[in-house]
Request: fold
Amino acid sequence: MSEIIKVGMADLNIATNQEILTTLGLGSCIGLALYDPGTKIGGLVHYMLPDSTKLRNNNNIAKFGDTGIRELYNRMIKAGANPRHMVAKIAGGAKMFEVSGLSGVGNVGERNAEEARLILKELKIPLIAEDCGLNYGRTVELHCDTGLYYIKSVGKEPKAI
Reply:
């Protein structure tokens, strides 16, 4: 039986082999999974905003894409993951609310997904799969024995990427 490790909002964690990392309620947030197939070490960060430099009160590194992804990467290396073998998958980044005008609030999901792509490129980690955008929430599970990233949404068929 696999142990399930919950990752909350603005949170991150790593796991190994028979463990499953899960996070609930990804709307405009991103659930970014890193995985090393050789060591079967996986990591998951559930971040809410793309950029920590835009806010003063930014103590929670997992709340932001720029700091959360780098922290997850560093923790995985400390746990024994090989950075050259890591791959990434992302889910979330939905446009949950229709906002009129040119407000940046409405496209925070899109900006979150773009931040993931930028940081992964900087870290030289290939983004091998994604399920982002549209207007619905997602719950995800990273199975560290296989590296499969399961995505569940209300009213939709579950899928693995």
Notes: The two ends are 22 Å apart (CA to CA).
